[in-house]
Amino acid sequence: MALNPQALLKIAMRVAEEKKAYDITVLDIRKISILADYFLICTGRSPIHVKGVAREIIEEIGKRAGGFQPRIEGFREGRWVLLDYGDLVIHIFVEEERQFYNLERLWGDAGEVNVAQL
Question: Domain holding 64: CATH number?
Fold first, then answer.
């Protein structure tokens, strides 16, 4: 069963919150890029925590979306894990990497999403 980007986003956000990721931000990039509809950006406390958050998101979306698996980058190091679900790209950082890459500034033209309105 394919889930729409908003449904994927809600699952990923819930899991990130449950796994104690912090500084969770969602950017709506639909009007400025064809890469995806949304970026979910969050921070983990260590590479082990980042990998744990990523693993749980992959597992939960896989269960809810008929085994749908993302393209995964950075999992081995665990400093910046990228999960590419097509219309939703999830970035899970350790603090130093998030500050360095500052995707919110880089994608400054994107609107921040009030997830309660999805």
Answer: 3.30.460.10
